[in-house]
Known about the structure:
Order of helices and strands: EHEEEHEHEHEHEEHHHEE
CATH topology of the largest domain: Alpha/beta knot
Number of strands: 11
Structural class: alpha/beta
Mean pLDDT: 91
Largest sheet: 5 strands, parallel
Oligomer: single chain
Low-confidence stretches: 78-97
Helix content: 25-40%
Strand content: 15-25%
Radius of gyration: 23 Å
Number of domains: 2
CATH class of the largest domain: Alpha Beta
Number of helices: 8
Shape: elongated
CATH architecture of the largest domain: 3-Layer(aba) Sandwich
Bound molecules: 6-chloroguanine
Amino acid sequence: MRIDVVTIFPEYLAPLELSLVGKARTAGLLDLRVHDLRSWATDRHRTVDDSPLGGGAGMVMRPDVWGEALDTLLGEDGEDGEDGEDGEDGEGAVPGPAGPTVLLVPTPSGDRFDQRTAERLAGSRRILVACGRYEGIDSRVADHYRARGVQVLEISLGDYVLNGGEVAALVVVEAVARLLPGVVGNPESLVEESHGAAGLLEYPVYTRPPVWRDQEVPEVLLSGHHARIARWRRDRALERTARRRPDLLRALPADELDRADRAVLEALGWTVDDGGVVPQPGAVAD
Ligand code: 6GU
């Protein structure tokens, strides 16, 4: 997979040389390139922003500079770029692992970025991350590339405001890279984690020593009884999810809940019916 990140602060992306993502790059599993938006600016001061039309505070990033940057980068593999060597609209584009090119635009007004989005992005051939600063990028940029057939995804990390898209770029690259084949050493560790297929938060985990500062590890985990351990973990995952993320609980498909699951949920004030998982009448989550 190839990922290009365009930003006015290339140094912000330095952590992507470390740890798992750094290793994925040196192992050739991920072709990650960081670009300085200002290299596409044309004036003496390398200006990338201007005041908002219609008035208001702050500055808006100029569409012409972004257009030059994105045309250049999209053109580099012949897909969706005017300068591509391979013709138009991806016809004859370099064959990649799978999937299309995605233009990712981090913005607090985007769709919420989640594990499903990360999984979807991990199936794409190329991701281009356009990091905005100030009040964001002129809206015509996303519209233009969408109209040209590029998949444009505007994503937000959550309900708070950051100064720019760079942190989101770090988040997305890490979340996607660890899903690429060969990046996480033991692929089993991708199975049982929070926000995995089960739709539950992960159960609490422990390691040695079995007693630490007077706190004992739950006895069942030392029992060697695999079925009981699995049940205990499932119960704790249900409990945690009910307390911390009732929104996830409501989204659970009822047909994936066994009798033991239902008993745990009942004890926590929830009930499972045709409508799915819902709070018991009068319960706190109602
Ligand atoms: Cl993706 N960008 C900015 N600037 N702020 C955010 C965000 C993104 N997600 C949450 N807040």
